[in-house]
Design brief:
Layout (H helix, E strand, L loop, with lengths): L31 H10 L4 E5 L8 H11 L4 E4 L12 H5 L3 E5 L10 E4 L8 H7 L11 E6 L7 H10 L3 E3 L27 E5 L4 H9 L4 E6 L4 E4 L3 H14 L5 E6 L7 H10 L3 E6 L4 H5 L5 E4 L3 H7 L7 E2 L1 H7 L18
Parallel strand pairs: 1-2, 1-3, 3-4, 5-6, 5-7, 7-8, 10-11, 10-12, 12-13
Antiparallel strand pairs: 8-9
Helix pairs in contact: 7-11
Bound molecules: iron/sulfur cluster.
């Protein structure tokens, strides 16, 4: 599944479970001229290209365009699954001079990596206009937080101005090291919404991010202005929370626990995984890159706890044959923490 930037996981408009179809065609800015400039500046002869899942089909055409602009350079495509900037193809990176990662902003800066976030060309203002219906009137409550994904970051400053012109007092925040931009959210990190406002406007495609945001900040009213699907909705995490409580209940009483440590470069939480197995003789550490139901089926476990991407647990959890919990949910299931401590699993720091 998923998980970030564009790609968290649904790169072209996260339509899962929404029953909606794309209202606007998205066009992405591949920034080919910048890529060529940077390749030339580094005198690179071998270049790796990595696309998130939703855009892999465009990879060969982008490689063709780049070949035309730089005929002496060899371009190679990564076929590894990719859902976030946490998910770089390190094998291809080691074998190329420059590695271009499309669809996400930098999680970790490196001289050899060119991040191309793929800014969207969709105009957000008509749907922001509609979203005013759901925001409090500025005369009653002018404070509003503003967040978006990497794809709309090129317009973030303008969106702030747009709200201020309508008498809102806009609160924005740069999250932590996992985030590149002020106001940016990831599927595993909503630190940019830790702001002093009771309402947050999320501008972006799909419900993937705002649901996580609403789970992480249950005290805030999260208004979704989705310029891709052309709808305004309020994030309602209740069904998500019910599903999480159900998984925790199902896992209670489990004896054998599989503790998944994800080997993707930006998803490892070794200390958390190690602490669990140190304190539970019936817990077994299992390392893997892609965490899929098929890969876990042969392990004879009663339940799993996933220390990798939290969205695998929250979004794909029901697809696994045994309950799959986040580390915090595991603590509840084994009785170390009370049920009401259940919260969204977020991920901080890089690697
Ligand atoms: S760990 Fe975070 S950045 Fe990586 S795929 Fe999951 S949600 Fe996205």
């Amino acid at each position: 599944m998923s998980q970030d930037g564009t790609s968290e996981p649904q790169t072209e408009g996260d339509l899962r479970n929404t029953g909606m179809s794309l209202k606007h065609d998205r066009e992405w800015d591949y920034e080919l001229d910048r890529i060529i400039e940077e390749i030339e500046a580094r005198d690179a002869s071998k270049v790796g290209l990595q696309f998130p899942e939703g855009l892999k089909r465009r990879g060969p055409a982008v490689a063709d365009d780049l070949r035309e602009l730089a005929p002496d350079v060899t371009f190679m495509l990564s076929g590894q699954p990719c859902y976030g900037a946490c998910d770089l193809d390190t094998y291809l990176m080691r074998r190329t001079d420059v590695f271009v990662h499309f669809g996400h902003s930098a999680m970790k800066e490196s001289d050899r990596i060119i991040y191309v976030p793929l800014f969207s060309n969709v105009d957000p203002y008509p749907i922001m206009e509609d979203s005013l219906e759901e925001l409090a009137d500025p005369a009653d409550d002018p404070d509003v937080g503003l967040v978006t994904t990497a794809q709309h970051m090129n317009l973030f400053g303008d969106m702030v101005d747009w709200l201020e012109e309508r008498d809102y007092n806009v609160h924005t925040r740069r999250g932590d090291d996992r985030l590149t931009y002020e106001g940016q959210v990831l599927g595993c990190n909503y630190a940019s919404a830790d702001i002093d406002a009771e309402q947050v406007l999320y501008v972006g495609g799909g419900k993937f991010h705002p649901l996580g945001l609403a789970m992480e900040h249950p005290d805030k009213n999260v208004v979704i202005a989705d310029p891709v699907n052309n709808v305004v909705t309020i994030a309602d995490p209740e069904q998500f929370m019910k599903q999480r409580y159900a998984s925790v209940h199902k896992a209670m009483g489990s004896e054998k626990w599989g503790v998944i440590f994800c080997t993707k470069i930006g998803q490892g939480r070794w200390e958390i995984a190690e602490k669990i197995i140190e304190n539970n003789d019936n817990a077994y550490l299992i390392t893997m890159d892609e965490v899929t139901p098929d890969r876990l089926r042969n392990f004879n476990m009663d339940a799993f706890v996933n220390t990798g991407c939290p969205r695998i647990t929250t979004d794909d959890g029901p697809r696994f044959h045994k309950p799959m919990l986040t580390p915090g949910e595991y603590e509840i299931a084994v009785g170390n923490k009370p049920l009401d401590s259940l919260e969204f699993d977020t991920f901080h720091g890089t690697w």
